[in-house]
Amino acid sequence: MSTLSMLHDAVVAAFAAHGNRSPYFTAIDGLALLRSFSERHPNHLIHRPALCIVVQGAKWTTFGERRLHYRTSQAMVVSVEMPGASQVVHGAPDAPYLSAVIELDQAILREVYESMEAPPTPASDEHAAFVMELNEAILGCAARAVSLLGEPQAIPLLYPGVKRELCYRLLAGPHGAVFARMVVGAERNRRLVEAIHALRGNFDKQVRVDDLAALAGLSPTAFHRQFKAMTAMTPVQFQKQIRLMEARRLMLSREMSAETVAFEVGYASPSQFSREYARLFGAPPRRDIGKLLSS
């Protein structure tokens, strides 16, 4: 049996044992399983650094102006927390879309990198997300991780080793230079990522691009150019998407009104908030939230 078949069977078994609900946030911290029986409308969310493995089917994810397509035996890798929209494009009742999302532990990546006899040289490519082909070794790590869900008592003993091996396979594989960049990176990239984190953490405040540029050690013009090269968004677009996604979450979880949530996430004008919300999600806040709650 191939490692892909092993992973497929482990994901199917995990869903069956869990009650077939998707997404399934498993007992393993940082491991989630996804399933869809049909093509879905875009799902807007804030992506954390992770390996998004397609076990069956196909999907696309858009970050700003950049769209990534990935399918069975491929994975999308996200290295920086950022907003995006994803849509399943291949999923059917007899062959649902299946995915395993494994968050990347940068502390373990660094530990493994520093322990390697000949670690890869960090790449200079600045994209914060890319698609990679998966080899047998990486698929095997994912299959063992998901299989552990059937042995809850073994998770704390065995999963740390699986996670460490996965980090090694990623660093030692064809894209090792990109993962090495995530660990060490150039000084410019490291400080740029710090600026992105600062914008993410202060999404509801007025943040001056000049201040972010200074944090990144760049001129405002260079910061704007390199920010967009990494995230495929301008700083303003990045902040706007974070605000709107957080607003949607608050309206769903706390039943807040559109006007109240507009101020909560940093908008000065509820009408501007409603316009930009409809532009991103396809409907004004009240109609969009009503549709989500009734689905």
UniProtKB/TrEMBL annotation:
InterPro entries: Homeodomain-like_sf, HTH_AraC, Tscrpt_reg_HTH_AraC_N
Gene3D superfamilies in the cross-refs: Homeodomain-like
TM regions (residue ranges): none
Keywords annotated in UniProt: Transcription, Transcription regulation
Name this protein carries in UniProt: AraC family transcriptional regulator
Domain of life: Bacteria
Domain HTH araC/xylS-type: 193-291
Keyword Transcription annotated: yes
